[in-house]
Amino acid sequence: MVESSQEPGRSSHAASLFLKLYGGMVLLVLLVCSSTWLGLQEFNNWRAQEYREGVASGVFRLVAVGVSTHHGLELQNWMEEVSQLLGVPLELVSGLPQHFSFFEQHRLDKGRTVLRLNGDESAADVFVKVPEHKDLYVHTRMVRVSEQQGKAMALLFLDALQRTDPLQRAQTFEDLGKYFSFPVSIVPVGQLNLDIEQRIQLDHDEVIMLLKQGNGPNSSSVRIMAPMPHHQGILVLGPLYLFNWMPVKLIVASAIFAIVAITLGAYVLMRPVERRIRRLELAVRKLRAGDLDARADVDGRDELGQLGHAFNGMAEHIQRLINAQRDMLRAVSHELRTPVARIRFGVDMMADTNEMEDRLSQLAGIDADIEELNKLIDEILTYARLEGDKPRLKIRAFSLPDLLQRIRQETYALRTPIQLDIDAAQMDPVLAEEHYIHRLLQNLVGNAIRYAQKRVVVRCGENAHSNWISVEDDGPGIPEQDRQRVFEPFARLDDSRTRASGGYGLGLSIVQKIAHWHEGTIRIEQSEALGGASFVMTWPKRLSASVLEPVTQNNSTETNAAQT
User: Within the chain, how many helices (H) and strands (E) appear?
Assistant: First the structure.
């Protein structure tokens, strides 16, 4: 069976553009999602750290202020009382007990708290700088935050106010409130929405903690209330909202970031494709405007690259067809002038003579000129058909030596004085369009006979992968620099001799087209045996699927048998 060869550079890269775009988009989405998630985790860790330090800053600022106002044994006793009140051990340390970063040191200098979680996050070390002391710090280790510490915070606040001059309490209240991450205020008891039991507790100078439960974000909060001395109002700390890991604003910001990142990434992926498409569109517009030299500068081996190569091939083919059409029109107009002029001359001569013999002679000349015109038109039509779209070849198996013998008989029927020899060994049937191979041999043999002195030899054969035909003559040969030019339409190396021997310069052009459509080549060499020109055509035994045409059942059976 005939194996069809796959079109080169197509299937092996058919999915490359898909991989570049869709694969790139998948990777982009995964990258953006993972980056957004990691960024969100890091940002939330930072938020949680800020939240914890903000909550701790107020109460430990109160502790640091208290340390700065006590001295000696009084300070020691006060520290023990505050440790019991908070439920955590407090200690004073000189110098930096740990290495602090620039930002942590800045927080400490501003009177803020630095909180460091242990490796397993089961406890946290808390540091705060004592005011008016250069290298004195309060340190404690907290395992958990309890209601006791919340109430202790309110008592420490009241203690700091009591130790302040009454005229300076308002300013002290304002200064201390800056270190709290939640509201701190003094509210008349009548403005608080409290039940009877809570009012009784406040009347007995107790600190109460109110927990407000909610279902939505920022709806659960804690407020701590402590009565001021001499019924000056209620100290209210809060509301302190519980930490929300996923606030709506953060989710919206993350979604916007992801959308923008994916959009920018998609633009980066699509931009090269867009530029290549625009270059291809520009080439199409130039070609449509009549610029036959327009070519698409689209590199790559993906689908767009293949499209660009296909467009360039189409543009070259169109340019070649139009140039060939122009050359043909010029050449045809030149070739038609001579026989038309002879016909006109013959008609004029017939009009000027009454001799029957002269008229018959002119009629014979006119008939010969008309026959020459018919041959020229036939050659032009054949060339135009081959130069246009690729013909639908009817590939079948036939005997090449038998075809050569038929060429020999047809040539001898013309009574040519040149000896035509056939050198054809026994070979398998070949796959080709027999009609076109016949036409090719006719043109090659006819061309060889025109220039041969005595002898022309036609040979055929095969090797492992191809079939070949050679036509040699003992004529003058063809100079090497002219061997490609002879295949051009209407080309003549010796115009006067060609006119004398016949021919229009289309035969070898047709030969080259026939070889091309059979995926073969035609080359010109110097004949070693005869010394003249040697034309050798070679074409593959296995033709591609684009050349083959479905045949009838009988013909396909014949082909399969021949291939077997």
Answer: 15, 15
Q: What are the C-alpha distances in Å from 148 to residues 114, 202, 209?
A: 21, 17, 10
pLDDT tens digits for range 97-114: 667 888 888 899 899 999
Tokens of 7: 């079109």
526-553: per-residue pLDDT in tens?
988 898 999 999 999 888 876 775 444 3
- b/e map of 434-445 (b: 16 or more CB within 10 Å)? bebbbbbbbbbb
Residue 86: per-residue pLDDT = 93
Type of residue found at 112: R
Q: What is the CA radius of gyration of the chain?
A: 52
> Which of 524, 538, 534 minimizes the C-alpha distance to 437?
538
| Residue 174 amino acid letter | E
Predicted local distance difference test score (pLDDT) of residue 87: 92
Q: Which segments within 154-278 are labelled E, that is strand? A: 184-187, 208-212, 221-227, 234-241
Q: Tokens 């009838």 sit at which residue?
A: 552
Q: Which residue has the higher pLDDT, 549 or 393?
A: 393
Is residue 304 within 8 A of residue 280, CB to CB? The reply is yes
* Inter-residue contact 43 to 250 (CB < 8 Å): yes
- Is the preceding peptide bond at 183 cis, omega within 30 degrees of 0? no
What integer is the mean pLDDT of 134-161? 90
d(CA 201, CA 208): 7
Alpha-carbon gap, residue 301 to 54, rounded angstroms: 60
What are 400's two structure tokens? 């090449």
474, pLDDT greater than 50: yes
As a whole number, mean pLDDT of residues 512-531 equals 88
- What residues have CB less than 8 Å from 366, skipping those under 6 apart? 342, 343, 346, 347
Question: What is the C-alpha separation between 17 and 22, in angstroms, rounded?
Answer: 8
Residue 60: closest CA among 84, 25, 38, 86: 86
Identity of the residue numbered 372:
E
Q: Torsions phi, psi of 120, nearest 5?
A: -90, 5
pLDDT tens, residue by residue, 435-470: 889 989 988 998 899 889 999 999 999 888 899 999
- Count CA within 13 A, CB hemisphere, residue 468: 17
- Asked if pLDDT for residue 410 goes beyond 80, the answer is yes
Contacting residues for 374 by C-beta, under 8 A, at least 6 apart: none
Give the chain's domains with CATH numbers.
22-180 (no CATH), 182-246 (no CATH), 390-563 (3.30.565.10)
User: Quick one: which of 440, 534, 521 has its CA closest to 478?
Assistant: 534
Residue-level pLDDT at 137: 93
* Partners of 142 in beta bridges: 124
Please state the rounded mean pLDDT for residues 307-316: 88
Answer whether 0.90 is exceeded by the pTM: no
Q: Is the pLDDT of residue 6 over 80?
A: no
Contact 514, 385 (CB under 8 A): no
Residues 6+ apart with CB under 8 A from 94: 135, 136, 137
